[in-house]
Write a structure and sequence with these properties.
The structure holds two protein chains of two kinds. Chain A is an alpha/beta fold. Chain A is built from eight helices and 18 strands. Chain B has six helices and 15 strands. Chain B has a single domain, classed as Rossmann fold. The chains are: A alpha/beta, B alpha/beta.
C-alpha cells in the first residue's frame, strides 16, 4: 500500500508540476501513514524525486513511450498502481495528465477528482477540496471508491522538499498494440518559448492594444520577466494573436504567480480563466473596467505610455536583482 | 456516419454562483442554463459532418426534465434526434456510465463531447466513455477530419499541438478550434419550429452509483481592494517587496 504519483518529464527533466505532485503525494502519504511511490516514464534523474518525498521510484523505460500516448500511459500507470496496491493515485493538471486521468480511472475503477487545491481534510472518509464553476467556488468532495485519483491543481500546493530514499526500481508494464491505436503522427512544439501552462508569470494583452503590430512591447516585457505571452478572446478571434495564446473560459486556464493584464477590460469569461493566478495586475485607461475589481494592483492610464516605462524599470530591476 | 454529441446543461457564464441547503446544492434560482460552450463547438462541427458528409447527428444529456429546453436548442441548431437519460447528473463517472450505455446501444461511430463543462470542470466524461466502450479517444481537439473509417485530429498540448490519427469509433473532447467562435449558430425560427417536432426520447437510467459526491460547497474569500498606483516604480516595488512575485 502506498500513494502512487505520476511524474511528468520533458526531454529527460522532471517538470515543476512533477515536483509539486510528489510533494503533495508525500503530504497525503504522511496523513495515511504510507510510503510514496513515484512512477516515471522515460523520465529524468530519478534520484531527484527523493528530494520531494518519493520513497521509491518505478522507472519505466520504453522507446514506444517516447511520445505521450494517453491510453498506453494510463495502462502503464494503472499497472504500477496495482503492483503497489495503491489506494490513492496523484496526477497533475497538465493537458496530458487531464487526457490520461479519465482513462486511468476506468482502468482502476477509481473515482477521479481534478483541480484539487489542498491536502485532503480527512482521509477516512477521503475528502478533497477542488475548484468548480471555473474558480468561482470550491467543492469539498468525498470519494466513494476504494481507489482514488486526485488531480492536483497547478501552483496550488507548491514544491516542498522532504528528503526520502527515492530508491529507483525498473518497471516494465505489459503493453498491447491496442494501447497505441491512437497514432501520434507529429508533435509541433515551440521549444524556445515559455508556455502558458508552465509559466510562473504571464503577460497578457487585450483589445486596448489596438492592433497586432503593438505586441512588441508585450513580448519585450515577457522576455524581461521570463514570462509567457497571452491574450484575451477578442484578440485571438480577430486573428491578432494565435488561438493558443487565448486565455479564459474557452481558452487556456492560467494559474500563474503573476498575471499582468494590459488593455484587457476583464469580461467575466476572461476572469474565470485566470482567477487561479495568485497576483493580478491590470493596466487600463478605463477606470471603470471590471478588471480593476478583480486585480491586486493597477495603474489607470494609457498602455502605450506605461508599458514602455514599465519595461525600462523592469530591466533596471532585473539588472540589479538578477 | 452516426454521431452522438454529448450536451451538458450548464449555468450561463454570467450566472451568480450561489448554494442552498447548507451549501450542499447549487442554487438554480434565476439561473439561465445553456449548452456547455465546449460541447457547442463539437455540436457545430457535427453539423458540418451532417451537411458535407451526410452524417446523422443525435444529441444526448443526462438529467431531469428541466434540461430538455437545452436539448431542444441543440435540435433547433440542427441535430436530428435527442435523447435524455433520466438520471440525476451527480458525478462524472456515473454520467459517463449512462452515456457509455447510450453509445453501445446506438452504435455510434463518433462521439463528440467538450474538453470540460464550465460548471464542475471535471473534464472526465469523454475519456471515460471511450474507455468504457473500447473506442479511441482524443482530448482537447482543435481540428477534426474524417475520411472513411479514419479520423485525423489536431490536439492542443501544453505549448503546442499534436496531430494524431485514429480509427473510428472515436470519442473526442472538443474545444474552441474544432470550429471557430464565428461558426457557432444561433437557431432561427424555422429551426426552432422544426425542433418541436423532432424526436426527444427519454431513456431509463442504468445502474451506476456515484463514485464521488459533493459534501459541501464553499465560495472563495472575498477579494481585497485593489491597490492603485501612479507610477511604474511603485508597481515594481510592490510586486517585489509586497507580493514577492518578481
Amino acid at each position: 500500500m502506498s500513494v502512487v504519483v505520476y511524474t511528468e518529464s520533458e526531454e529527460g527533466k522532471f517538470k515543476k508540476i512533477a515536483q509539486e505532485a510528489v510533494s503533495y503525494a508525500k503530504g497525503i502519504a504522511d496523513k495515511m501513514g504510507t510510503p510514496v511511490t513515484a512512477v516515471t516514464i522515460n523520465g529524468g534523474d530519478t534520484s531527484e524525486l527523493g528530494k520531494y518525498g518519493a520513497d521509491k521510484v518505478l522507472n519505466v523505460s520504453n522507446d514506444k513511450l517516447d511520445k505521450f500516448n494517453a491510453e498506453a500511459y494510463a495502462d502503464a500507470v494503472a499497472q504500477a498502481a496495482k503492483k503497489e496496491g495503491a489506494k490513492v493515485v496523484v496526477v497533475s493538471s497538465s493537458a496530458n495528465s487531464k487526457y490520461m486521468a479519465p482513462l486511468l480511472a476506468v482502468n482502476l475503477d477509481a473515482g477521479y477528482v481534478p483541480n484539487v487545491t489542498e491536502l485532503p481534510e480527512s482521509t477516512e472518509p477521503f475528502k478533497v477540496k477542488h475548484s468548480v464553476f471555473t474558480n468561482k467556488a470550491f467543492s469539498i468532495t468525498e470519494f466513494k471508491t476504494d481507489v482514488k485519483i486526485v488531480g492536483l491543481a497547478k501552483n496550488a500546493y507548491g514544491v516542498k522538499e522532504n528528503e526520502a530514499a527515492g530508491t529507483a526500481e525498473d518497471f516494465a508494464p505489459e503493453l498491447s498494440s491496442e494501447d497505441f491505436s491512437v497514432d501520434v503522427v507529429s508533435v509541433d512544439k515551440a521549444t524556445d518559448k515559455v508556455t502558458i501552462a508552465d509559466a510562473e508569470i504571464v503577460v497578457s494583452g487585450g483589445r486596448g492594444l489596438k492592433g497586432p503590430e503593438n505586441w512588441e512591447m508585450i513580448e519585450e516585457m515577457a522576455d524581461i520577466l521570463g514570462a509567457a505571452t497571452a491574450c484575451s478572446k477578442p484578440v485571438s478571434d480577430m486573428g491578432w494573436r494565435p488561438h493558443s495564446e487565448h486565455v479564459g473560459q474557452t481558452g487556456k486556464p492560467v494559474a500563474a504567480n503573476l498575471y499582468i493584464a494590459i488593455g484587457i477590460s476583464g469580461a467575466i469569461q476572461h476572469l474565470a480563466g485566470i482567477n487561479a493566478s495568485k497576483t493580478k495586475v491590470v493596466i487600463n485607461n478605463d477606470p471603470e473596467a471590471p478588471f480593476f475589481k478583480n486585480a491586486d494592483y493597477g495603474i489607470v492610464g494609457d498602455a502605450f505610455e506605461i508599458v514602455p516605462k514599465l519595461n525600462e524599470k523592469l530591466k533596471e530591476f532585473k539588472a540589479q536583482n538578477g | 456516419m452516426k454521431i452522438l454529441v454529448c450536451i451538458s446543461h450548464v449555468p450561463d457564464t454570467t450566472s451568480k454562483i450561489n448554494f442552498t441547503d447548507n451549501d450542499t446544492k447549487f442554487d438554480t434560482n434565476g439561473v439561465q442554463f445553456v449548452i456547455n460552450p465546449n460541447d457547442e463547438f463539437g455540436l457545430t462541427r457535427a453539423m458540418w459532418f451532417k451537411e458535407k458528409q451526410g452524417a446523422t447527428v443525435h444529441v444526448v444529456n443526462v438529467g431531469g426534465a428541466e434540461t430538455e429546453p437545452t436539448l431542444r436548442k441543440a435540435l433547433a441548431i440542427g441535430a436530428d434526434e435527442a435523447i435524455r437519460v433520466d438520471a440525476e447528473a451527480t458525478d462524472g463517472f456515473s454520467v459517463a456510465k449512462q452515456l457509455a450505455n447510450v453509445v453501445k446501444e446506438g452504435g455510434y461511430d463518433l462521439v463528440l463531447g467538450g474538453r470540460e463543462s464550465i460548471d464542475y470542470n471535471g473534464g472526465m466524461v469523454p475519456g471515460m466513455i471511450a474507455q468504457l466502450t473500447g473506442a479511441n479517444f482524443v482530448n482537447t481537439c482543435i481540428s477534426l477530419e474524417i475520411e472513411g473509417d479514419t479520423a485525423t485530429a489536431i490536439r492542443e498540448i501544453d505549448g503546442g499541438k499534436e496531430t494524431v490519427k485514429a480509427k473510428l469509433p472515436l470519442v473526442v473532447g472538443g474545444q474552441k478550434g474544432i470550429v471557430e467562435e464565428s461558426d457557432l449558430r444561433i437557431p432561427n425560427m424555422r429551426g426552432i419550429m422544426q425542433a418541436r417536432k423532432k424526436p426527444l426520447t427519454v431513456k431509463d437510467a442504468v445502474d451506476a452509483n456515484a463514485e464521488t459526491q459533493t459534501a459541501q460547497f464553499e465560495k472563495p474569500a472575498p477579494k481585497g481592494d485593489i491597490k492603485l498606483v501612479e507610477t511604474v516604480d511603485e508597481l515594481v516595488d510592490l510586486l517585489h517587496n509586497e507580493a514577492k512575485v518578481i
